[in-house]
Amino acid sequence: MMSETMTEALDHDDGTDVRPVPRISLQAFCDTPEIYGVVDAASADRRFAKVHVKAHMGGIPAAVEFYGGAPTPNVIVVESRLGADRLLGELDRLADVCDPGSKVVVVGHVNDIDLYRDLLRRGVSEYVVAPFGPIDFIRTVSRLYGDTQAKPLGRTIAFFGARGGVGSSTVAHNVAWSMARLFETDVALLDLDLPFGTAGLDFNQDPSQGIADAVYSSDRVDDVFIDRLLAKCDDHLNLLAAPATLEKSYDFSADAFGTIIDVTQKGVPTVVLDVPHMWTGWVRKVLTMADEIVVVASPDLANLRNTKNIVDVLTAARPNDRPPHLVLNQVNVPKRPEIKPAEFAAAIGREAVAEIPFEPQLFGTAANNGQMIGEAAGKSEVAGMFDTVANLVSGRSQNKRGKRGGLPPLLSKLLMKKSA
User: Fold this and answer.
1) CA proximity to 18, closest of 112, 152, 182
2) Integer CA distances (angstroms), 366 to 163, 201, 386, in order
């Protein structure tokens, strides 16, 4: 009926460590509106993009009746408020109508070690105790299909300009360089602006292959293929450059870059996406699926309007993720009327994580020399701003919890409660 792993998934955090769930079918039979709402919210999360979800009310009795005449999905989630004895009896009835390959997650309201052991003997895949949130639920399902000993997927960080010409690519490239230098871990920069991308110029690279080869050979994309296409900029920074040619038009489906990003994530700890300023199906999909989004804007009225729209749309599409970060670029242009950064930030409800001044001599010289600001200006204030953004979006500035050992978390908590 089910797998034999048994872990507890009630760690409340922002879900940055949660793996996307593979293409599966999941049906939930809830006993309370609260858990129904959790499943419904999880179904809209980007990590559940490939999961076919159906939620019902009625708990275990409804599941037994339903599967008496229907095949079971990959994952069955059942909620019960019953005590231990009656819950086990209901699960025995469910086992009689379950297909052997189905995994069962039990949502209970009883925190009891004897129940835990009985469920383990019956082969329940997971037992979680309510209440919990959508991220906790997604983590539970993700663990059913993930190797707990494997390294987590790489973190994707998308940079997007509120308007053309605001310097989003420049910010993306400098932050990618900062992350590779600061943390000494591999960073892959993907230039998704195929006709006009500047990453090759900014890093003084002219690779013969790049992102276009991956897009037009999607059936061949795997880790070996991507590794062959990546151009090495330095010890830890790799580039998937844009062709920057106009021989053809670049029209893509919404899923055109999904496989490329997924495969790159599996081999590189940090993936930086330089997303062009346009609004198409594939751009929206790339931004929605990223772990972190940075919107780059200049402090004028058109940028304010666009930034507000972008932040509102992406925040609504990613309810369980942090809202996009704001970087204000080209601040204090001489003789240009500007919106004050504090007023700009207040209008969109997001503080700017960096306010990069307008310094055409510094940025122009670095661009012409194929250098990053940290190379051209050393430990300058501007270079420090890119380091600040790098720390923030990479998660390196957050305290990490240590690895847990010994008893599974649920069992450990139960034993502590018993001894109290």
Assistant:
1) 152
2) 22, 11, 14
- Tokens 């699960």: give the residue: 91
138 within 8 A of 109, measured Cβ to Cβ: no
**Distance, CA of 127 to CA of 101 (rounded, Å):** 18
Q: What are the DSSP E strand ranges found in 230-311? A: 231-232, 237-240, 270-275, 292-297
- Amino acid 208: pLDDT: 83
pLDDT at 199: 95
Nearest to 13 by CA among 127, 139, 131: 139
In angstroms, the CA 311 to CA 324 distance is 6
* pLDDT tens-digit readout, 279-297: 999 999 999 999 999 999 9
pTM score, whole prediction = 0.79
Place of tokens 């250098």: 371
What Å distances lie between residue 320 and 53, 65, 123, 292, CA to CA? 17, 33, 30, 12
Amino acid sitting at position 40:
D
Q: Is 399 helix (H, G, I), strand (E, B) or coil?
A: coil
Q: Indicate if the alpha-carbon torsion angle 410, 415, 418, 420 is positive or negative.
A: negative
2: pLDDT strictly greater than 90: no
Element (H, E) at 127: strand 126-129
Q: Distance between CA atoms of 122 and 91, rounded to whole angstroms?
A: 9
Q: Give tens-digit pLDDT for 361-394.
A: 999 999 999 999 999 987 889 999 999 999 999 8
Q: How confident is the model at residue 131 (pLDDT cuts 50, 70, 90)?
A: very high
Backbone angles phi, psi at 407, to 5 degrees: -70, 150
- Judge residue 405's burial from the number of C-beta atoms within 10 Å of its C-beta, 0-12 exposed, 13-18 middle, 19 or more buried: exposed
144 alpha carbon, distance to own chain's centre: 18
**What would the DSSP string read from start to end of 297-365?**
E-SSHHHHHHHHHHHHHHHHH-TTSPPPEEEEEEES-TT-----HHHHHHHHT--EEEEEE--HHHHHH
Give the 3-state secondary structure of residue 142: helix
Contact 236, 181 (CB under 8 A): yes
Cα–Cα distance, 328 to 379 (Å, whole number): 20
As a whole number of angstroms, the distance between CA 133 and CA 268 comes to 29
Q: Round to whole Å and give the CA distance between 191 and 179.
A: 17
Residue recorded with tokens 């089910």: 2
